Amino acid sequence: MTAIAHEKTTTTRDLYPSRTGGEYRLMPRRDPVVYGSPVAGPLDEATMTRYARDGYLHFPAFFSREEIAAVKEDLDRMRRDPGVRGREEAITEPDSGALRSLFAVHLDDCATGLLCHDPRIVRIARQLLGGAAYILQSRINYKPGFKGREFFWHSDFETWHVEDGLPRMRTLSCSISLTENTAVNGPLMLVPGSHKQFLSCAGVTPENNYKRSLKRQDLGVPDPGHLSRMIDRGGLTSATGPAGSVTFFDCNLMHGSGSNITPWPRSNVFLVFNSLENPLQAPFNGLRPRPEFLAHRENVDIPDP
Ligand code: 6CS
Ligand code: FE
Description:
Layout: E1 2-3, E2 25-28, H1 45-54, E3 56-59, H2 65-80, H3 82-85, E4 90-92, E5 99-103, H4 111-116, H5 119-129, E6 133-141, E7 151-154, H6 156-164, E8 171-177, E9 189-190, E10 197-200, H7 210-213, H8 224-234, E11 237-238, E12 246-250, E13 255-257, E14 268-275, E15 299-300
Antiparallel strand pairs: 1-15, 2-10, 3-12, 4-5, 5-6, 6-14, 7-13, 8-12, 8-14, 9-11, 9-13
The structure holds ligand 6CS and fe (iii) ion (FE).
The site of ligand 6CS has 9 residues, from strand 6, strand 7 and helix 6.
């Protein structure tokens, strides 16, 4: 782990004010989408141009089923372990109490922890972010059959900016499917191109909002009008594919996923890479920072490329 400097107070102007008690308002993105160059790879120029345009890249079968099988065993072992459910990193579904998410899985000394450091993932993240990057957040979203509830539409950056003090958009997520993600079991849905504008949200964040929002997010989510216009403009796509598929998406891309009412789980590992040039500051909502397991800010894990 590496100690990184981070501002305990917010020193820079808030370029993306949200949940300040005003109305919903679309604002221009003030940051590039792609920071690195295609010269050294692994992504070629056309692929990086596609990421800049759409805000995501989807690679079906990026990892083999055999590689993912070991991680799937971890997932099942952790779900059965009663000790795991007692951890603060474990979030349960609001109605059934089934395991919904487990955070900070990159720290686990098992196949999942190894997957989170796989150089094939790290190299793409570093290229898109233009240099060294650390794991800002990791989690498994279990979305079990019958009981996995939705993750309503949102921009991750809106939450990480307001509640964690993430200053600029130099951050991305990487979703790795551990089970088959199909059209029917609650796949990740994305609004192509929605990353190019920032939707400043209405409302004001209460203390400890994360205790509710991780179960069911109702603050920092788009209103129907803005969301409909975003979808009219960019359309909708879903990241489907076999276990081992990978989706990289920009921190400000509007995304969500529906409830899973099928027997088939939709379990994915989510890794969030943040540029070392973009360390967390104090939360822009003026409240106390969220716990370390949600947003690593002092001693961070910088995976080797
Ligand atoms: O609050 C967060 O950090 C989490 N919430 C959502 C819905 N996506 C990003 C992240 O897992
Ligand atoms: Fe999200």
